[in-house]
Amino acid sequence: MLFSSVIALVSCGGSVKQEEGFNYIDERFADIQMLRYNVEGFDELSLQQKTFIYHLQEAALWGRDILFDQNGRYNLELRRMMEKLYQEYQGDRESTDFKAFETYLKRLWFSSGMHHHYGSEKFVPEFSKEWFAAETGCSEEILNVLFNPEVMPKRVNQAQGEDLVLTSASNYYQGVTQAEAEAYYARVKAEGDQQHPVMHGMNSTLVKSADGVIYEDRWTTNGKYGKSLTKVVENLKLARPFAEDAKQQEVIDLLVSYYETGDLHTFDQYTIAWVENTDPLVDFVNGFTESYGDPLGMKASWESIVNFKDLAATKRAEQLSANAQWFEVNSPVAPEFKKEEVKGVSAKVIRAAILGGDLYPSTAIGINLPNSNWVRAEHGSKSVTIANLTQAYAESSKGNGMLKEFVYGAEEEELVKQYGAFTDDLHTDLHECLGHGSGKLLPGVDPEALKAYGSTIEEARADLFALYYIADDKMVELGLLPNADAYKACYIGQMQNGLLTQIVRIKLGDQIEEAHMRNRALIAYWALENGKGRAADGKDVMEMVNRDGKTYVRINDYAALRTLFGELLAEIQRIKSTGDFEAARDLVETYAVKIDYDLHKEVLDRYANLDIAPYKGFINPVYTAHKDTDGNITDVTVSYTEGYAEQMLRYSKDYSLE
Ligand code: ZN
What we know:
Elements: E1 2-3, E2 25-29, E3 32-36, H1 47-61, H2 64-70, H3 75-88, H4 96-111, H5 129-136, H6 140-147, E4 173-174, H7 178-191, E5 204-208, E6 214-218, H8 226-239, H9 246-261, H10 264-276, E7 282-290, E8 301-309, H11 311-322, H12 324-330, E9 345-357, E10 364-369, H13 373-379, E11 381-386, H14 387-396, H15 402-406, H16 410-435, H17 454-470, H18 473-477, H19 487-499, H20 515-530, E12 542-547, E13 550-555, H21 558-578, H22 581-591, H23 597-610, E14 615-619, E15 622-627, E16 633-639, H24 644-654
Parallel strand pairs: 3-14, 4-5, 9-11
Antiparallel strand pairs: 1-10, 2-3, 5-6, 7-8, 8-9, 10-11, 12-13, 15-16
Helix pairs in contact: 1-8, 3-4, 8-9, 9-10, 16-17, 16-19, 17-20, 17-21, 19-20, 20-21, 20-22
Bound molecules: zinc ion.
The site of zinc ion (ZN) has 6 residues, from helix 17.
């Protein structure tokens, strides 16, 4: 998965066309800016396609409560209690306590829980404990969870040396230590199929019973999360008759069967059918998918996206896919780690129609699935860039002052203005379509060998692949870049983000924890250090320049920087292919975790002066089904007028079963 770099350098949307009058920007609270995305092209879809999307977006919204519970066992109770107070409060709604409470609730909605969606630290309530206790009459236990900073401080703890399971507040393990969980899954994996391993543990809570037995509480229509999953399944079944082809109906059948049984072999069959189903215009993801929320990287959070192809933009990505073999053969990676045959990298550009679960309101701008290594190796993967979301990011960040403040000089500013948006999109395509799909594990290497460092290394691998190739003559040759200088805009943006601007998302004194941020820091700091004295003229390839107390990133030799990216790509691929845990740990801990305190403070101060919200998320559009007297859908229309709180309250009312 690829997240938007929040710090969009881009001030003009070169590659996106703007629809007149669409309001991309909505309300702002805490560190969040709410945006809207435009589902352009929906009205032109056929009635069958619109109806299909309508039922699928219902299925997407029904999974919301699952994620709240996965993110922490008090989240649903807190949400219900707070929504009740929010709606029924008779006191002064302008009072300091109520205002602070309102912000807290908006943050809780945004994160699907009481921890920050990105940094994963627990929110600090700015309303008083006494006020909240008096208004809700809630228990001491709840007050302690809310107000005691020692209780459940992190959703996902990645601090080396601690018991990551016991110290993480995410709700994937009950009464189990990290050592017990690791031993349990080591045994399960050893007993399972080694050639085609299922995604062990991805759809269950690992529980230790009162008498000490460790077992998996599976998430199925009859098990845990059964009420929500039953509604998801109901809507998938309503969607099925409107699927675009027989293969897509088979995809739905397999998904339903998997939700009903929890059988992970069925899940693999479902992902294979899904990956092979590339023809339909409308497609969807619905299920337990990404494992970033589990400190051990196994348990998958529930998410959904419904989308349809953006036909014009898809051509660009298809050009990359058509040349996938050329890219694999010519990469700087050692031959033994390359795929002999790069299969089925299906690339496309999509427009999101709805976001649900872990993709809402904070979302990814690209998706690459499935996550199973052997399914990817044998059946390929689907890779998408979500055009209407990147468009919304680009449009909403125009003129926010970020570019002027942090870019080194006029030459760099001009490059970014001219090619920034364009190369950002291409970088995402390369990362998703080719980067994640390239390379192979050596036989017998455990796909989980890199453990907690696996996600960072995987993202670095995909990013380096993109950085290496965006500077290749092939880009101009294929008509994907207008000239041999355009890629420099991408280098400027990525290095500036990795070395400087991405840390505006982190509290002063904290370290980098999130995998995508670690990956960006890893690449940039590694290149900074390893490029010393390696520019063509003997200077440093890249340097941090201080001017009037402000730090800037200056790239002295773009070609040499590309060479460095190639070297690091080769090493990262070796680490991945051989499962070299020690090397992964050394790279990540050396370059990707620590932040220089003084630099951090300076960047935060400069950023604060710009007054930009560091995080963004999306309000969904609202779909209305128009029906005839027999209940058949005759049309589906889309509107963009629902407010943020209004939407959250409606979802809680219409898509929640106690
Ligand atoms: Zn990625």
